[in-house]
Amino acid sequence: MKTVINHVKLYDGKGTVLENASLSFDETGILAVSEQPEQPAEKGDRVVEGSGRTVLPGLFDCHVHLGSMEGDSQVQTGALAAAQIWEHLRYGITTVRGCGSRWNADITVRDMERSGHLTGARVVASGIGITITGGHGWAMCHECDTADEVRKAARLQLRAGADQVKLFASGGMATKGSDPDMSQYTVEQMHAAVEEAEKKGALTCAHATGLGGAKCAIQAGVRSIEHTQLDREACEMMVRQGTWYCSTITTRYGIVNSTDPSVAWMRQKAKPTDIENMLRSIRLCREYGIPMAAGTDSGFNELICPLGTGLYRELWLYTEAGLSPMEALHTATGNAALLCGLQDVTGSLRSGLEADVLLVDGDPLKDIRQLANVRMTFRKGKLVYENL
Ligand SMILES: [Zn+2]
Less crowded by CB within 10 Å, the N or C end of the chain? Predict the structure, then answer.
């Protein structure tokens, strides 16, 4: 079915804003982005009045964990992952980058969504991650202690169909007994995974809460580093290597500000300077021209980082760091697509791309928090969520 949205403010995901525009699309893709306020419609087309609203590309969350993180059975994990990819649509999120999933649950739901058995966000999947024995995230990882073991695990993941190899370069917050500042792998060990991923055209990403681990990952050529509190040396290395930054400040914000006793053990690992350091890291990326993609770490603890609204908070924190709302939106649209290699598929509103489209009330380009006013989400041209 063709949909036409008229008289709407349009952000194309690549830096262009049209004030009184129109957009048409169907299941085959985006048909026309027009500066004219109206486009012709025929009987049977869905015509949506867009005045007072903003249309933008469906959002990306570039760091999620699908399925349960510990305890549950394989069936529960898979069922939860399926529910989560649907749940993202309610928040206008039409693509997620899975950054570690037990039993390769994210790979399975990615394939089931592709084949039409599930309705949900598009998934870029890592499946099982790679960490040291007993290291950070071990419950969802291959435990590998040498370069050869890392290489073997990377090959296993690529064989299983992973789009990305997920490495744990340092300790972190969410595993009991894990020291966030501890480095886990050498440059050489991580490079073994990077080499295997690159042979297959796959992505790599590294959990890198600790700066030492982050610097090893950058040197190893890992494509994106996650969670890090950057210094200038790291930024200079990232510029040289073309490394991306995925902050997930929203989760640290959740840890620092949560009063729930169940997460007190995580809060104890946090430092009072964490939020300021992460805001500064975002400013440093802007200063150095380091590309950023928005991610949250949703999926591991709803109290700390709720699915969906955690992304709105992430983007709001980027504006608190000094990014304009448009720059913040770019990290969850055009730039996010670029990180995932999906720039010719989705992430912007351009004719020919798949019609992943979000319509919100108000104007998130003035106040990023208005992203929360989701009215309609379309995935590949189909209306998948509506709140009119
Ligand atoms: Zn994570």
Answer: C
